[in-house]
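Exercise 7.
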Amino acid sequence: MTSSFEFSTYPARISDAERDKALDVLRDGVAMGRLSHDTFVRRVELALAARRSDELAALTADLPTEGRLSRLVFGTVAAVSGFGVRLRRAWQAEKLPKLLLPHPAAGHPLRIGRDPANGLRLSHETVSRVHAELRHQGGMWVLRDLGSTNGTTVNGRRVVGAAVVRDGDQVGFGRISYRLATR
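Solution. The predicted structure, written as tokens, is:
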């Protein structure tokens, strides 16, 4: 029988925060090219199995840790570069003409292309005769490319097959672009 004054000789369990910090250092090390993929995988396995703080420290001892200043600088650069992309997209969106989405109850798709029989006729040399189709199905708007020569895009990405679109998205047919809008 042990008394209440005796303490366990087992070391304290590593906290999740300590383990996460070590994994972050390993992740940064492989991203900077200081660790090979195999070394990274092995060290992650060891970090997950570690029971003491000194075991974690040994796994990251040869890797530099990012200082507070460098984290601040890199975070600021990432935020600024992301802001530039968002600003450019917003600037373009305001200059684009609106393409009003048809009423969902219409039940038939809106065909887009150069052919006069289409619901939306675009007479531009980069638009195919039957270019794309906009359909309301399952509560969503779906834009489908119909095998056009110069492609259909949604927010700058080429549509392969079909893509879900919504109000505010930028859609392109060849070199003609619109911003989708509801009534």
